[in-house]
Write a structure and sequence with these properties.
Elements: H1 10-21, H2 28-59, H3 66-77
Length: 79
């Protein structure tokens, strides 16, 4: 595992310490890694949506209603 030295603002350091003190996380490192993992997952979802939008824009028009399109998109996000 790579080791890094980073500096936090006082409010962020306080929040990190509170999270560790609440025993939600065992260490600041565990918490920061979890936050980064969540950000990466969020970015992957954004990239997926962006790809689908670009693909849809290139494919032309559809006869499906807004409700049908929304339902299909929600179904795809759920799994």
């Amino acid at each position: 595992m790579a080791r890094q030295s980073i500096t936090f603002t006082n409010p962020n350091d306080k929040w990190l310490k509170e999270q560790v003190a609440s025993e939600e996380y065992a260490s600041k490192s565990e918490l920061v890694n979890d936050l980064i993992r969540q950000a990466r997952q969020k970015q992957a979802r954004i990239d997926w949506v962006r790809h689908k939008i670009e693909k849809a824009e290139k494919s032309g028009f559809t006869s499906r209603s807004k409700a049908e399109i929304l339902s299909k998109a929600k179904g795809n996000l759920d799994g």
